[in-house]
């Protein structure tokens, strides 16, 4: 069951991130073509592209977690010795705790934005629906680390550790 949860999350996040990046590329191309070919800029396209990049970037955090491909220091890799598996599990529990704390803080941020009615400059839409990607990304990354701690066989092995 945990494996199917991981696969489902990763597939969904991959699709949404890909669509977001495609949207960013399309919006920027339309903006450049509009300015260079037609001497006319489209109001708000650059801002929309930035918002798309924010969504894709936060989903990139969750996808890096899925692949166990975060950048990290390597100099302590051999220090745990025969306790390496236990240390890795503890690291995943610690990472899950960190990400869940980040989810809580970011949810508080979104709630404040909801209550104050923050709107995007130029485009004037409410920001909180877009900001939901932040607590989602932290929650998803935390959940994945928790799954890795509960079932280490589901955690992809890093190329850094295997050479």
Can you walk me through this structure?
The chain is mostly helical and 163 residues long. It has one domain (2-70, 84-155). The chain has six helices and no strands. The longest helix is centred in the first third of the chain and has 35 residues, at 2-36. The chain starts with a helix and ends with a helix. Residues 159-163 have low confidence and may be disordered. Part of the tripartite ATP-independent periplasmic (TRAP) transport system. One of its GO terms (cellular component) is plasma membrane. Belongs to the TRAP transporter small permease family. InterPro entries: DctQ (IPR055348).
Tally the helices: 6
* Secondary structural class: mainly alpha
Please tally the β strands and state the result: 0
For the biggest sheet, the summary is: none
From the spread of the alpha carbons, the general shape counts as elongated
| Cα end-to-end separation | 30 Å
Residue windows where pLDDT falls under 50 for at least 5 positions: 159-163
Q: Helix-strand pattern, N to C?
A: HHHHHH
How many discrete domains?
1
| Rg from Cα | 19 Å
Question: Helix coverage percent of residues?
Answer: over 70%
Proportion of residues in β-strands: under 5%
Mean pLDDT: 92
Subunit structure: The complex comprises the extracytoplasmic solute receptor protein and the two transmembrane proteins.
Family: Belongs to the TRAP transporter small permease family.
Organism: Shimia aestuarii
Protein name: TRAP transporter small permease protein
């Amino acid at each position: 069951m945990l494996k199917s949860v991981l696969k489902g999350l990763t597939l969904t996040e991959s699709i949404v991130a890909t669509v977001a990046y495609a949207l960013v590329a399309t919006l920027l191309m339309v903006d450049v073509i509009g300015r260079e070919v037609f001497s006319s800029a489209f109001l708000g396209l650059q801002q929309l592209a930035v918002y798309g990049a924010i969504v894709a970037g936060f989903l990139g955090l969750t996808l890096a977690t899925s692949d166990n491909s975060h950048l990290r220091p390597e100099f302590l890799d051999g220090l745990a010795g025969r306790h390496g598996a236990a240390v890795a599990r503890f690291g995943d529990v610690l990472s899950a705790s960190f990400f869940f704390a980040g989810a809580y803080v970011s949810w508080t941020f979104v709630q404040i934005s909801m209550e104050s009615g923050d709107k995007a400059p130029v485009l004037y839409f409410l920001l909180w629906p877009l900001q939901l990607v932040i607590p989602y990304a932290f929650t998803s990354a935390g959940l994945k680390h928790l799954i890795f701690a509960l079932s280490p066989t589901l955690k992809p092995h890093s190329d850094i550790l295997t050479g």
